[in-house]
Amino acid sequence: MQESTFNPFTQDQLLLGIKSNEPKVLKWLYHSQYPKIEKYVMANNGDEDQAKDLFQEAFIALWNNVKSDKLRPENGTAVTGYLYQIAKNKWLDYLRSSRYKNTTGLQTHHDKSEEEDYNLEANQSNVEEEFKKLGENCREILKRFYFLKESMETIAKAFNWTEATARNNKYRCIQRLKEKVNTLKN
């Protein structure tokens, strides 16, 4: 097994190591987790510098959450998975931001063919139809997150869940919706 994937620490040791700024723990976390996050960013329209910046932001967020006891072993959340999810969410936020959108080329209506317009409308219709078929909780989570722009903390409180549970459920719901829409396309 490669050294970067082997975890020599328990979740408790990782959390205590982060809390006490233990160099071995911090170094292991950085070296084992950065490649995964860099690969994700590079595969999603990013570059190496953006991956480094994103990892630093995610690492600091993890460190702050551990220090303030927002992430505890009894939550059942793996530290490495939590770090990856923070990075992923931050990258998705960046991709949705105006800062990113302003750097990508815009395609005007005149550049698109009528067939592309039809496909876009058909896809939107499919998404709406499949959204209606999701369970009540999934519809509510996605509506609150994507349309009402509520934080995961607010959503978690509304359902009486932990933030990690809310995040996991939102992810599962959006994946379910994507799978249903993709099935219709094929």
- Which spans of ≥5 residues are poorly predicted at pLDDT below 50? 104-115
What does the main sheet amount to? Answer: none
The strand count comes to: 0
Average pLDDT score = 80
Strand content: under 5%
Helix-strand pattern: HHHHHHHHH
Tell me roughly what share of residues is in helical segments. Answer: over 70%
Question: Span from first to last CA?
Answer: 38 Å
The helix tally amounts to 9
Structural class, please? mainly alpha
Shape: globular
Cα-atom radius of gyration? 19 Å
Characterise the protein shown here:
With 186 residues, the chain is mainly alpha-helical. The protein is 73% helix and 0% strand. It is built from nine helices and no strands. It has helices at residues 11-19, 23-43, 48-67, 79-96, 98-101, 114-133, 136-147, 152-159, 163-185. 16% of the residues are buried. Residues 104-115 have low confidence and may be disordered.
